[in-house]
Amino acid sequence: MSRKRMVATAAVLAGALVLTACGGGGSSSAPAGGEEGGGDTLKIGFMGDLTGENSGIVIPPRNGAKLAIDEYNATNPAQKLEMVEYDSQGSADQAVPLATQAIQQDKIVALIGPAFSGESKAVGPVLEQGGIPSISASATNPGLAQNGWKFWHRVVANDSDQGPAIADFLTRAKSPTKAYVISDDQEYSVGLADAMFADFQAKGVAVERDQFAQTASDYSSTVAKVSAFQPDVVVYGGYYAQAGRLLKQLRDAGVTATFASGDGSLDPQLIQGAGAPAAEGAVLACPCNIPYGATTGPLADFTTRYKAAFNTDPAIYATEGYDSATLFINAIKGGATTPDAINTAISTATLDGVSKKIAFKPNGEPDVNSIFIYQVKNGTLGLLGQSTEATLG
Amino acid sequence: MIDDFTQQFLPSTVGGLAIGAIYALVALGYTMVYGVLRLINFAHSEIFMIGCYASLLVVITVGVSAPLTGVALLGMLLLLILVAAAFSGGAAMLLEVIAYRPLRRRGAPRLAALISAIGASLFLQELFALFVIPGVFGRPGRIDTAVPRIVDRDVLFRIGNADVRTDQVIVLVAAVIVMVLLDQLVARTRIGRGIRATAQDPEAAVLMGVNIDTIVRLTFLLGGAMAGVAGVLYAMEFENIRFNIGFILGIKAFTAAVLGGIGNIRGALLGGVALGLVENWGAIFFGSQWKDVIAFVILVVVLLFRPTGILGESLQKARA
User: Fold this and answer.
1) Ramachandran angles phi, psi of B33, nearest 5°
2) What ipTM, to 2 d.p.?
3) CB contact under 8 A, A210 and B143
4) Separation of alpha carbons A205 and A389, rounded Å
5) B283 interfaces chain A, CB cutoff of 8 Å
């Protein structure tokens, strides 16, 4: 979803500059004063858009991280931790000075974030120079791993893994002989559609594609193409607004093929737009693990604890935020107290996390690119599991 | 390629006719106002949007919980069309009084009226996004508003390999009936004669005892009502509406009006249907992403050879 974020980021930039200069300073300087004397509390930073337009996808990982740190502190450890929040508004321009402040004044030993890809790109060199290890719970741009950074990590798969994972999953779950690939004309959509198209082709599935303008709302020509091709699966690259309209028009025209899309369409608004009957059975994929409808196991347990702490259900990237913090906590439990030692510890660590099993490649990417599959059942989104294991009901 | 064409031609045609009929209904408002006032009413796209939300209001107020059939469906459609036409026609008249009449009274240049039209268009969009949709409907203002289903998507009959559904037939039949009524109204009644006279020569019309203000008001009312009907049909067919829904559709409808010959009622009908069909036919060969390109290339080509559009005549010369 990197493009959507970039646009929004640019939009909030101007107005937010003034606001967060104060907000960020206030939140981090107050605890800083109290810490000087204590000595046995280490600081972990959390950076992302906490109050801006896209804070809806940053608050959940922030809550997840906070939950992990609070739970750790509640065990009364010798080495207490404190989470310091840096509200970057998702903007690279604000993230860089905040990162400098975090390193030089607040002396954080590790950073969770930045949440988005744009700010991650800008903050990366600062952290690298300061030698502060970072784990992002939600930055999915593929390019971030190619900077040669030694201190940067993320716990989610990147955007380029999503398309192949969707195509692989459908090939395994539905054994299609014919697939139809649709997208609108946005960068994210076309990229996802390209990847799915190529993967189906490589698997020997007969595949055709069509594309419509983002602003269009009558898809009758696309629907006619799909009807004529009679595919077993229809995959869509794009966001939920268009996906909802498209899915409705496909079902209205009697197309019964399995419909699948990526994280841009993973939103309850998809079901609203398509209407519950048309949306039923739709398959969505995401690098994120949202415990929708989990009733047993660690995910259900996490949901209960999260809900008790924040009085709301865990949403997108909440589990990833929790796991990011847990990685740092484990390193500190293991005796690492300097940024350098923590970085060494997490680089070789393995974690059986809430979201998934996590270990890092030397470039900071997770060693397994997990994509999670969701399906609309009885009008709500439910988690089916990892794309390599999930089965369609 | 030939295979694609034979398989997709008829289904694409059905889809093209449905959207083309909606283009045509909206195009009527542009063309009538242009014929009478030589003004391009850019806020007309928002009059269409108001029609969409008026029909949602009716559906919610009546409380349609399941798709209707038979007499209930017919009654519902009539109610929808009447209410939406009243809302849209009323809004169009109000628009004329507020945004255009003061300018006309003071003899402002046409450019001023055009800017006023664009201002009114943006104002209405934001009014709905900020107040009307959250306030009246209790939904978020800037994303799609879902419309409950009132017609089942049953296949009524087949032409070749194309399924023709009930909802598509309703769109076409309703649009044709309304357009024939309008055409006859303009061609045969006293009001229609007034409209044609004003379009032909406003000053002579005044000398002949035509009340220009009344005629202008009526023109906005009729054009707005047509957009209201289009809104009903759009909301019923696509079931997703939003505050800026008129923007792209309005541009297409305006294109249809120019294509058919702006100022010409039958030209708007022809232009709308032609545009809907050509878009969908072109998409068979080039892909749906080329729809807009195809539509505007056709427009340019037609205007190169027939600068006044396909039918070319203006409103005053249209005869029954």
Assistant:
1) -65, -40
2) 0.91
3) no
4) 21
5) yes
A227 touches chain B (CB under 8 A): yes
DSSP track, B152-177: ---EEEEETTEEEEHHHHHHHHHHHH
Q: What is the mean pLDDT of residues A91-101?
A: 94
pTM score:
0.84
From chain B, the residues in CB contact with A241 under 8 A are: 143-144
Q: Compute the distance between CA of residue A57 and CA of residue A189 in angstroms, rounded to an integer.
A: 20
Nearest CB to A244: which of B11, B149, B240?
B240
Residues A17-34: tens digit of each pLDDT: 434 444 333 344 334 433
pLDDT-derived band at B1 (thresholds 50, 70, 90) equals low
Q: Which of B4, B11, B239 sits opposite A275 (nearest CB)?
A: B239
Cβ–Cβ < 8 Å for A262, A286: yes
Main-chain dihedrals φ then ψ at residue B26, nearest 5 degrees: -70, -40
User: Mean pLDDT, to the nearest integer, of A73-87?
Assistant: 94
Find out whether the peptide bond into A114 is cis, omega within 30 degrees of 0. Answer: yes
Asked if A342 and A133 count as a contact pair (C-beta separation under 8 A), the reply is: yes
At B57-90, the pLDDT tens digits run 999 999 988 899 889 999 999 999 999 999 999 9
Q: How many Å apart are CA B169 and CA B167, to the nearest integer?
A: 5
| Under 8 Å between Cβ of A138 and A317 | yes
Of A126, A156, A157, the C-alpha closest to A322 is: A156
What is the spatial distance between Cα B315 and Cα B267, in angstroms, rounded to a whole number? 9
A25 contact partners, CB below 8 Å, separation of at least 6: A101
Q: Pick the residue from chain B with its C-alpha nearest to A227.
A: B8
User: Which tens digit of pLDDT belongs to each residue from A229-254?
Assistant: 999 999 999 888 899 999 999 999 99
Helix H or strand E segment including A374: strand A372-377
User: Cβ–Cβ of A254/B155 closer than 8 Å?
Assistant: yes
- Give A348-366 as a DSSP string: H-EEE-SSSEEEB-TTSSB
* Contacts for A127 with CB less than 8 Å, ≥ 6 apart: A99, A103, A111, A133, A134, A149, A151, A152
